[in-house]
Design goal:
The structure is a single chain. Strand 5 (161-165), helix 7 and strand 6 (185-189) form a beta-alpha-beta unit. With 300 residues, this protein is α/β, with parallel strands linked by helices. The strands form three sheets. Strands 1-11-8-7-5-6 form a six-stranded parallel β-sheet, with helices on both faces. Strands 3-2-4 form a three-stranded parallel β-sheet, with helices on both faces. A two-stranded antiparallel sheet has the order 9-10. It is globular, with a radius of gyration of 19 Å. It is built from ten helices and eleven strands. The chain starts with a strand and ends in an 11-residue tail after the last helix. The structure holds NADPH dihydro-nicotinamide-adenine-dinucleotide phosphate. Residues 142, 165-168, 170-172, 189-193, 196, 209-212, 230-233, 270-271, 274 line the site of NADPH dihydro-nicotinamide-adenine-dinucleotide phosphate.
Amino acid sequence: MAATVIDGKEFAARVRGQAAEHVAALKANHGITPGLAVVLVGEDPASQVYVRSKGKMTVEVGMNSVEHKLDVNTSQEDLLAMIDQLNTDPAIHGILVQLPLPGHLNEDLVINSIDPAKDVDGFHISNVGLLGTGQKSMVPCTPLGCLMMLRDHHGSLSGMDAVVIGRSNIVGKPMAQLLLGDSCTVTIAHSRTKDLPDVVRRADIVVAAVGRPEMVLGDWIKPGATVIDVGINRLDAPEKGAGKTRLVGDADYASCAEVAGAITPVPGGVGPMTIACLLANTVTACCRANGLAEPEGLTA
Ligand code: NDP
């Protein structure tokens, strides 16, 4: 039987709608407008597209969007000074430094200079520690989006076997922590994992965050399992015309969809949820900063 398609585009629109409702209530009841500052250093074309789209959606849900575009040669000192200024600006509730940064800048140092309460990407070492110890934190957007989709599809995840393929700090590790927090039995697989297909075959939930096009095959999937495909890989698509490309995930969609119970497509699965969760995190950060109740359903 063909898998249920988990429609991330539709789900993300729902999350943005919820965020917009909370923003409207914050304005009407408390005279507060959440503000998100995005800092972009350099002119990486992909980063520019992301930043534009983040800014557009921030405004669409009624929040203030501030973009700081800095020269590629910006010094570490100047970047840290800018972050310091945003840290103390009461109109700014979320700060995102677009990664990757140019090579002369120390990414860890920069991220850890953000006020953890405004760290809407959830990459600050304090937030990593809070998440790892099951305390209230800012949760990285992509894994948060995956968790929301899984909870929405399954209800409780308690007792399920989950395999996360990939151990990066931005996706794999926080994803595993979140699944553990929801009482899954979690295995983290990576490039040194022995017999990966066999490991994946045990899972009720498979999260693929590898960066290898169509690597996870249908015969790795336990019948009825849920496949969350985080991968975004661009392949040449000469059939669409010269120089054209197409996006594929880390799972081979056609073969996995034949066996899985549910699957996220690429594009239109996890991708749209990432920005929606950034907006959700900004609303959460704003509520926390003002001592207000956190929006339900928008946090882990
Ligand atoms: P990284 O490159 O940081 O991590 C990839 C992970 O995959 C590593 O842990 C690596 O293992 C593991 N891996 C590599 N090859 C294999 C293999 N053959 N078998 C098993 N594991 C393997 O990637 P990210 O976590 O940043 O991103 C993963 C994917 O998700 C990418 O396609 C990226 O574009 C996408 N992405 C999508 C987002 C979205 O919004 N939808 C957001 C962020 C990322 P090891 O540690 O041993 O090297």
